[in-house]
């Protein structure tokens, strides 16, 4: 590391904050030495809060029908090659029951923005989940909804909501989304969720089309100010039926570097080693954990639909990605010195692995 890099890295470690142009310098001048230095301290501060715990969440992909036409997404509405599906309430509840028996105490319901999953449908399902498994956390990832909708879902028992902001730069947001989607509305949703008492997750793609180091610096400044309970970042991976099909993917190197930076910005954040990391490298999940991540989300969806929820090409959905193979995932985490923990892992309860 050069002297300037070391000074910025050490200030990030002690002050948890840098100016935008300083984050930009850190990104543009990163090196293997700088990455190792930041990862070492990211792991240290994470261990102080969570020990060697890696929290697992049971992911249920409830449907791939979506009204939106995001330019990077394989389930965008204009993709006529997408094999659409929608799980029934009975299927979703059965997946949650199976996850409970496997030891999962957090279930994540993720899907496209599908009008079928109205407040009435979702609230009824959440109440049934909470009634059957009162010791479980319910996380939703269902896109943009109204304040009233978020309030109803929260009242029904939803605990957490994941909504990637995608980019903290308005112009960049417009390059990634169709005109009918709004940067302001995405930010409104995140602020509504926070105001309603959800544990809120944001996040962005690393290496997205048109993304610059300045955009990434803006994302880091946003994370500083918003202080999300969860933050999901992963490398951009193109899908063959989108306008970005020929764009280069993001890299595991830059993704892991940013995982370390985010951990140092906000030490208690729940930080997933995402499926996309495992997709672009066989040891991607492990490398994410060693950079400062502490969450993985194996798939609980019915095997018959897992390949249909294809946000990007070659998305992992079977093998060690399957929730039924949690023992194999546990072995992989043990091999790098970590332990799988299936409880709810509440950021607001300090050393929640205990």
How would you describe what is shown here?
There is one protein chain. The protein has 354 residues and is α/β, with parallel strands linked by helices. It is 43% helix and 12% strand. The chain has 13 helices and 9 strands. The chain has a 6-stranded parallel β-sheet with strand order 2-3-4-5-6-7. Helix 6 links the parallel strand 4 and strand 5 (160-162). Helix 4 (89-102) packs parallel to helix 5 (119-132) and helix 5 packs parallel to helix 6. The model is unreliable at 349-354 (pLDDT under 50).
List the helices and strands and how they pair.
Blueprint: H1 3-15, H2 20-28, H3 32-50, E1 53-56, E2 58-63, H4 89-102, E3 106-111, H5 119-132, E4 137-141, H6 147-156, E5 160-162, H7 170-176, H8 183-195, E6 199-206, H9 213-226, E7 230-235, H10 252-265, H11 275-280, H12 284-291, E8 295-296, H13 326-335, E9 339-341
């Amino acid at each position: 590391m050069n002297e300037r890099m070391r000074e910025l890295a050490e200030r990030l470690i002690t002050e948890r904050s840098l100016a935008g142009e300083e984050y930009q310098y850190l990104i543009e001048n990163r090196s293997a030495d700088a990455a190792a230095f930041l990862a070492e301290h990211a792991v240290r501060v994470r261990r102080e809060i969570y020990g060697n715990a890696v929290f697992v969440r049971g992911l249920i992909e409830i449907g791939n029908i979506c009204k939106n036409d995001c330019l990077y997404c394989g389930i965008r509405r204009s993709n006529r090659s997408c094999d659409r599906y929608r799980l029934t309430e009975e299927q979703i509840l059965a997946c949650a029951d199976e996850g409970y028996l496997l030891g999962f105490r957090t279930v994540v319901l993720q899907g496209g923005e599908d009008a079928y999953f109205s407040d009435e449908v979702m609230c009824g399902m959440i109440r049934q989940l909470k009634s059957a498994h009162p010791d479980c956390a319910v996380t939703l990832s269902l896109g943009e909804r109204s304040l009233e909708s978020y309030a109803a879902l929260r009242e029904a028992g939803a605990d957490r909501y994941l909504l990637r902001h995608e980019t903290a730069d308005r112009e960049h947001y417009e390059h990634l989304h169709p005109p009918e989607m709004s940067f302001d509305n995405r930010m409104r949703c995140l602020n509504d969720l926070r105001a309603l008492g959800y544990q809120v997750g944001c996040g962005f793609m690393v290496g997205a089309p048109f993304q610059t180091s300045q955009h990434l610096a803006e994302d880091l400044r946003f994370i500083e100010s918003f202080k999300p309970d969860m933050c999901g970042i992963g490398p951009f991976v193109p899908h063959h039926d989108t306008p970005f099909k020929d764009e280069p993917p993001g890299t595991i190197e830059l993704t892991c570097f940013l995982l370390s930076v985010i951990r140092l910005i906000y030490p208690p954040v729940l930080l997933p080693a995402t499926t996309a990391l495992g997709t672009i490298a066989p040891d991607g999940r492990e490398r994410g954990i060693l950079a400062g991540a502490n969450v993985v989300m194996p798939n609980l969806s019915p095997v018959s639909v897992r390949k249909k929820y294809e946000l990007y090409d070659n998305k992992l959905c079977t093998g060690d990605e399957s929730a039924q193979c949690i023992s194999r995932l546990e072995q992989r985490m043990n091999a790098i010195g970590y332990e799988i923990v299936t409880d709810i892992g509440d950021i607001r309860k300090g050393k929640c692995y205990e």
